[in-house]
Amino acid sequence: MLKVEPKITVDIFDKYYPPKVQLLKWIGNKQKYAAFITSYFPHKFNRYFEPFIGSGAVLATVSPTEGIGSDTFKPLIEIWQTLKTNPSLLIKWYEERRQLLEKQTKEDVYFLIRDSYNKKPNGADFLYLSRACYGGVIRFRKQDGFMSTPCGVHTPIPVNAFKNRVEIWGKRIKNSDFHNWDYTEAFDSAKKGDLIYCDPPYSYSQSILYGAQNFSLSQLLEKIKEAKSKGVYVALSIDGNKKSGDFICDLPIPKYLFEREVFVNLGGSMLKRFQMEGLTMDNDFVNDRLLLTY
What we know:
The chain is an alpha/beta fold.
């Protein structure tokens, strides 16, 4: 029987502390909750895998001695690989684009860089867009992959502030490698005693976001079952509301696959505010379920 952990507020964590600042702006970013999530990780494990790397908040919190971050989104992996191997180049990417604000409006700069990215997707343009777009909503048109997110209301952080973040995050991920993999490749690489943390796209409520259109939760659950059978620890973050709008989602979670579940209150929904043209949604809260195979 699945054990439901009591709803508690944890103020002090014994092991993992997230970075104080974000490298990328990213909707669904778990940075504020990473210490809580990682407090449920096994006390000992071998390699750490994060096959839906996104903002990298949980990986950076763990700062593993041997980690593997991966994603199918190549421009994103370019950023992580460059952070590890050539952080000065990453800073240069941002600086070249950020300094355009000295002569043009932030909207003109944003659309110029977005057009450049859409002509030829690349990590350098995407880095700036992730920091300048509305609320970190990384949205693509399904039919042609066109990034269509509008410009954010904020001014992108100064170059020196970004440089500071690169230094902080570079130390956190120095023992991790990054691969342009489908999540199945990460699962197939994991061995007994390794830990996999999954934060996949919510295919019901986030279908406009990158990776969600073709994502299958049922297929991921099969890989989790396979990983559990060979002694791999798996932690899965998934929509705890089980609801998208007025539609109750049927999550195909097999019995006995997970041993424990924990509810994580993520606060208000940035995606909902985006969809409602910036209005505050006072009663719209997001709850994650953290499902554990151990």
